[in-house]
């Protein structure tokens, strides 16, 4: 069975939307895995959301073109969970959820606590932004 077939079956059997490049490290060399992932992106099976991170796609019923199978917030939450990075909702989202504010936050922002993250996460035209809480204890 070819590497492409094994990787395709592995992607389809996953319940998660996010697929990491490191998930396929044992299937082949880095260059082989990279070529197959690039082919999946070109075919529309996957979409690249960050360095080494891809999201599954589904066919948009209005345009007929492949789109990511989730929102930026959902994909980012799953990506950070897989990378074991703890993030929290931004201060604006927290204020809205607690009822202290009536303004609905626009744009995806997460709080990283005191941790500095430079990973760029993009889904379509939307990019995730980070809010650093630098208050000392």
UniProtKB/TrEMBL annotation:
Q: Which taxonomic lineage does the organism of this UniProt entry have?
A: Bacteria, Pseudomonadati, Pseudomonadota, Gammaproteobacteria, Pseudomonadales
Q: Which InterPro entries match?
A: DUF6088
Q: Which Pfam families match?
A: DUF6088
Q: Could you identify this protein by its name?
A: S-adenosylhomocysteine hydrolase
Native species: Pseudomonas segetis
């Amino acid at each position: 069975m070819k590497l492409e077939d094994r990787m395709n079956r592995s992607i389809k059997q996953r319940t998660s939307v996010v697929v990491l490049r490191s998930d396929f490290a044992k299937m082949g060399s880095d260059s082989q895995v990279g070529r197959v992932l690039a082919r999946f992106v070109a075919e529309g099976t996957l979409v690249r959301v960050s360095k080494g991170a891809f999201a599954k796609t589904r066919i948009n019923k209005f345009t007929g073109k492949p789109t990511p199978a989730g929102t930026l917030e959902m994909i980012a939450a799953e990506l950070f969970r897989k990378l074991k990075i703890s993030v929290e909702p931004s201060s604006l989202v927290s204020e809205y959820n607690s009822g202290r504010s009536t303004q609905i936050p626009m744009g995806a922002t997460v709080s990283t606590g005191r941790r500095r993250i430079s990973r760029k996460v993009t889904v379509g035209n939307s990019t995730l932004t980070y809010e650093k809480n630098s208050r000392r204890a």
